[in-house]
Amino acid sequence: MTIYYSPRLVLKWLLWLFFILLVFNCVGIWLKLSYSNRLVTHISNATSFNSETSISTLYSSLILLTASILTYYINISVKRLNKGNASWLWLSIIFLYMSIDESVEIHERTIMVFRSQFNLTGLLYYSWVIPYGILGLLLLFKFIPFLYKLEKKTRNLFLVSGFLFVFGAVGIELFGGRHHELYGQENIEYAMFYTIEESFEIIAISIFIYALLRYIALINPKSTFISRN
């Protein structure tokens, strides 16, 4: 069976879904800050970018899982073409972990451990950024040769998506943690922090998926997945 797809159209649909989730998130924030009852709490939990049980968290987990599946597919494809590179398999494993982490918030469970051990405050109040930041830098150095060998546009798309993801997941998170420590979570400013953070992450993964779909067509134009640009 041949599956036709358009990377650009997929990207547009991913961004439209993100926009819908963003609207739901903003409505949930407004309701939560304006009213206080059980129904509003349920609506907020279902729509918030900051809730483990929300639709947006499920969506984020699914697109990360999609990235894992696509990188694994590329790993198989390059092996068949005798161009095997273990980096694709590593990427698949990393995105699978990120998908699981997004749904069960493994990184959140490290916060209290590091915060209590090292008495972390301020920008490091969300202390998970320390181990994840160090691991991220190590992985960056590991993948530099891999990135250098990629086709130029694919490499640039990877770098853009990576920058956006790290800027949101770590950069915005640092200031969001500081705000949480000083002023708590029940305010519009904190809601803006987690909304911006999650927005950068979703947009970044959407771009990454677009890059992967485009790359699949480049390396294996005769595959069962055929790109229509």
TrEMBL record:
Keywords: Membrane, Transmembrane, Transmembrane helix. This is Uncharacterized protein. The chain crosses the membrane at residues 12-33, 53-74, 86-104, 124-144, 156-176, 202-219.
